[in-house]
Amino acid sequence: MEIAAFLIDFILHIDKHLQDFVVAYGPWVYALLFLIVFVETGVVVMPFLPGDSLLFIVGAMCGAGLMDFSLAMVVLLVAAILGDQCNYTIGRMIGPKVFQWEDSRWFNRRAFEQAHRFYERYGGVTIILARFMPFIRTFAPFVGGVAAMSRSKFTLFNVVGAFIWVLGIGTAGYFFGNLPWVQANLEKIIWGLILVPGLIAIYGSWHAGRKENALKA
């Protein structure tokens, strides 16, 4: 419970935690940023770490002169690319075994086969769009690996998606993160960065399911 409370507080007040870290440890903040983004995107069991909000706050802190913008963006880009690549590799390694599993409380073959078919058709676009969706961005590269998406194709969309995600949100934070209105409503903005993409993903999944059921009927 204490760990969960800390994570929630860290996510909702990430600006204060990062500022405290910069004051206490200086340049080591770049190592912390690399670790957070790499673990969130590269370790399948860690989807709850901050992503979009972290990028926005880092951009804002760079705009306020607390960090170097170019260095922060390079570190975050490398972490995002390597994280997805690691996640994809894990999926490729265990994918053949996964497809041999029977239905159980931990695995639904029908749902997984739907994901497999989806990646065969929309894998590239999914890798890019998933960058902006909490939780989904952690599992998208893994499923891409399990679905046997070619490494060259995955790497291309991985790099493109990372550039759009990191530079897009980071730059937005750099230019707008220190505006008085943004600072006054920062917690609401962080909630929005977490909830809105997630709700869009849930709606998209529900809509796709309805469409598939309608075609089968």
Low-pLDDT runs of 5+ residues are: none
Number of helices: 10
Order of helices and strands: HHHHHHHHHH
What fraction, in percent, of the residue positions are helical? over 70%
Q: Any idea how many domains?
A: 1
Given helix and strand content, the structural type is mainly alpha
Task: Let me know the number of strands.
Answer: 0
How many strands, what sense, and barrel or not for the largest sheet? none
Intertermini distance = 46 Å
State which percent range the strand residues make up.
under 5%
The overall pLDDT, averaged over residues, is 78
- Report the C-alpha radius of gyration, rounded: 18 Å
Q: What would the principal axes of the Cα set say about the shape?
A: elongated
Q: Which secondary structure elements does this structure contain, and how are they paired or packed?
A:
Elements: H1 2-12, H2 14-25, H3 28-42, H4 52-63, H5 69-98, H6 109-130, H7 136-146, H8 151-176, H9 180-184, H10 186-216
Helix pairs in contact: 2-4, 3-5, 4-5, 4-8, 5-7, 5-8, 6-7, 6-8
Membrane topology: Multi-pass membrane protein
Subcellular location: Cell membrane
Main location: membrane
Walk me through this protein's architecture.
It holds the Pfam family VTT_dom. InterPro entries: DedA (IPR058127), DedA-like (IPR032818), VTT_dom (IPR032816). The chain crosses the membrane at residues 28-49, 56-82, 128-149, 156-177, 189-206. The protein has one domain. The chain is elongated. Helix 3 runs parallel beside helix 5 and helix 5 packs antiparallel against helix 8. It has 217 residues and is an all-alpha fold. The protein contains 10 helices and no strands. The longest helix is centred in the C-terminal third of the chain and has 31 residues, at 186-216.
